[in-house]
Design goal:
The chain is mainly β. The protein folds into 2 domains: 7-169, Trefoil (Acidic Fibroblast Growth Factor, subunit A) (Trefoil); 178-472, Glycosyl hydrolase domain, family 43 (Tachylectin-2, Chain A, 5 Propeller), CATH 2.115.10.20. It has 2 helices and 37 strands. The relative contact order is 0.12.
Length: 476
């Protein structure tokens, strides 16, 4: 039910909050940001999807772009995502000057996209830009429709005050699943990849010799042990002998199943991608190729982890990969061997520009004449403090160039947000996409805020907007 913001259930803050107290916002809710001075809502001029369009005030009834979600980035700092455009609220040219325009832009990791929410009392809030220290307001304190939003010093004018009016859930909840773990398993699910088999579903995830789960109904997943019978010895040179393999990608092709995985150590780009094959996809029945398919050294400025395979329109396989260290790359594979094709070169697809180039977990999915590049942004693997979230761009070719919905190249930080933390669903990422009976299924992990941040399996069906962009289907 839509209602004005109710402070205690929707915004968590101490009873002693003052006009300068930062607050924690309910991330599960979509909000109208209503200017206290004008009574109008913040939106995007003409409801444009184009990156760089000004944020303006207009009556709620005149805007499709008036819904926003607060995406947690740690320390009570947030991205403010527009739920129509999949872009975030920022300041033109990351300016720190009073009067610089507020606009809609890709989540490229620049600090002008970070905001704090400050309790101003009486149900009103100030939105403070972390980069500049200035407040979001309306040009000349105007009460006219279409007046532009900008940043300004905290001079006490009422156009710097905002009310947060809740308007339903920010995102659909994950589909229900019941995942069984062995008695000593504390790893949960990371970087899941799932395929259909003759007998049901095989789910693979990070850790040890690649963790395997099996399901007959895609609801109940039974612990099936390790996919590989043992960790291949060649991986020790890349894992510091940890015997811990990451980020599997499973796919059927040429009458068998192909399982790519990463061998690395945290924070290093001394990394390699391995390959095992199987006729059954059953745990223990995978035969490793015995050597790396690709190493970071073979693709300059890359980190050879997080593999993902896509078949192009000619059924030629391509391997996307990458993590920080220059971002996302792609290379052609040999159809027969599954290894890098003779003479193939690495092509650059995407990077983050700022925030340590925090982009990884690439997966490419074909749909409706486009190739969609799904990526994980920001930082994984910190439980309830993880800031992972999922973005996407698209191209008419597997090898790019890829653009976001606002028209920005992904090689210049362009990305359209698809799924972010909401409520107890913290740090969603490590995603793949599979075709299932009812359409495209997003498969990802998240940290369950209701279970001490345990890594859990997330599944959501995707729908497609009128202009061909993926959105989460609102169903359970």
């Amino acid at each position: 039910m839509n209602s004005p913001v109710a402070l205690l259930p929707l915004l968590a803050f101490s009873l002693g909050a003052t006009a300068t107290a930062q607050i924690a916002v309910d991330t599960s809710v979509a909000f109208h940001l209503v200017n206290y001075n004008s009574g109008m809502a913040l939106g995007i001029e003409d409801d444009s999807q184009v990156a760089g369009t000004d944020a303006v005030q207009d009556p709620i009834s005149a805007l499709k772009s008036s819904l926003w979600q607060f995406v947690p980035e740690g320390n009570n700092q947030y991205l403010i995502e527009n739920l129509q455009t999949g872009q975030v609220l920022g300041i033109s040219d990351a300016s720190t000057a009073p009067g610089a325009a507020a606009l809609d832009w890709a989540d490229n990791g620049t600090p002008d996209h970070l905001w704090q929410v400050i309790d101003a009392g009486n149900g009103q809030y100030k939105l403070k830009n972390v980069n500049s220290g200035l407040l979001l307001g309306i040009s000349a304190a105007s009460i006219a429709p279409g007046a532009a939003a900008l940043q300004w010093i905290d001079n006490g004018t009422p156009d710097h005050l905002w009310t947060l009016e809740a308007s339903g859930a920010a995102y659909p909840e994950p589909l229900p699943v019941d995942v069984q773990y062995s008695s000593n398993d504390t790893a949960g699910i990371h970087d899941p990849s799932m395929i259909r088999t003759l007998w049901g579903y095989s789910l693979f995830s990070t850790h040890n010799a690649i963790h395997g789960h099996a399901s007959f109904d895609r609801v109940h997943f039974y612990d099936a042990g390790m996919a590989l019978s043992k960790v291949p010895e060649w991986t020790n040179a890349f894992t510091n002998s940890s015997e811990d393999l990451w980020a599997p990608d499973a796919s059927p092709r040429e009458g068998k199943y192909w399982l790519y995985y990463a061998a690395s150590s945290f924070g290093s780009n001394n990394s390699a991608i391995g390959l095992a094959t199987s006729r059954t996809a059953l745990p223990g029945e995978w035969l490793d190729s015995g050597a790396p398919v690709l190493t970071s050294a073979e693709c300059e400025f890359s980190n050879a982890i997080d593999p993902g395979v896509v078949l192009d329109e000619n059924d030629t396989p391509w391997l996307s990969f990458g993590s920080f260290y220059g971002g996302i790359y792609i290379v052609q594979l040999d159809k027969t061997t599954g290894k890098v094709a003779s003479g193939a070169t690495c092509l650059h697809l995407a990077n983050r520009i700022a925030n340590f180039d925090a982009i990884e977990g690439s997966y490419i999915y074909r749909h409706g004449g486009y190739y969609y590049l799904f990526v994980s942004l920001d930082f994984c693997c910190q439980g309830v403090n993880s800031t992972y979230h999922i973005g996407v761009g698209r191209s008419t070719s597997a090898t790019g160039p890829y653009y976001d919905r606002g028209g920005l190249p992904m090689t210049q930080g362009g990305v359209t947000l698809l799924l972010t933390a909401h409520g107890n669903i913290i740090g969603p990422g490590g995603q793949t996409v599979m075709r299932d009976g009812s359409g495209a299924l997003l498969v990802y992990h998240y940290y369950d805020g209701n279970n001490n941040g345990f890594p859990a399996l997330g599944l959501n069906y995707l729908d497609w907007s009128a202009d061909g962009w993926p959105v989460l289907r609102n169903e359970r």
